[in-house]
């Protein structure tokens, strides 16, 4: 069984997957920083200095003026501001992956989506 496992790990697919997962985890941290530290502050200024991280709807009678962590300790909240951040992170990652796949297809001589 050990020989089979060694053969499996030494196949290109398993090694490619392992490298992809490691790079993907690091890339996720970079995208998170880009969104939270660069993109969201600019959007916040554009819409009147709104802090998206603290945007929520209280569900358990919390006062709406407190920060989200205090509101969570007091009861349930719908944290739609953090959801907006996550959606923007997803869009940045999806667009970047699109660009990478598009470039790889060009290098391979395959069809490129218009």
- Please count the beta strands (DSSP E, at least 2 residues each): 2
Sequence of secondary-structure elements? HHEHEH
Low-confidence stretches: none
Distance between the termini: 47 Å
Report the helical percentage. over 70%
Across the major sheet, the strand order is 1-2
**Category from helices, strands and their pairing:** mainly alpha
Oligomer: single chain
Number of separate helices = 4
Rg from alpha-carbon coordinates? 21 Å
On the 0-100 scale, what is the average pLDDT? 79
- Determine the strand fraction and express it as a percent band: under 5%
Report the biggest beta sheet as strand number plus sense, adding barrel if it closes: 2 strands, antiparallel
Shape: elongated
Characteristics of this structure?
114 residues; mainly alpha; two-stranded antiparallel sheet; 4 helices; 4% strand
Task: Describe, in plain words, how this protein is organized in 3D.
- The protein starts with a helix and ends in a 6-residue tail after the last helix.
- By secondary structure, it is mostly helical.
- A two-stranded antiparallel ribbon has the order 1-2.
- The longest helix has 35 residues.
- The chain is built from four helices and two strands, in the order ααβαβα.
- 70% of the residues lie in helices and 4% in strands.
- The model has no long low-confidence stretch (mean pLDDT 79).
Give a quick rundown of the structure:
By secondary structure, the chain is mainly α. It contains 4 helices and 2 strands; from the N terminus they run ααβαβα.
């Amino acid at each position: 069984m050990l020989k089979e496992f060694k053969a499996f790990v030494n196949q290109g697919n398993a090694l490619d997957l392992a490298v992809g997962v490691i790079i993907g985890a690091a890339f996720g941290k970079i995208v998170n920083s880009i969104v939270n530290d660069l993109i969201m502050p600019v959007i916040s200024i554009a819409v009147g200095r709104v802090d998206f991280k603290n945007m929520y709807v209280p569900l358990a009678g919390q006062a709406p003026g407190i920060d989200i962590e205090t509101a969570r300790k007091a009861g349930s909240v719908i944290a739609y501001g953090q959801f907006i951040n996550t959606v923007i992170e997803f869009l940045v990652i999806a667009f970047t992956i699109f660009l990478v796949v598009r470039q790889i297809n060009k290098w391979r001589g395959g069809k490129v989506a218009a």
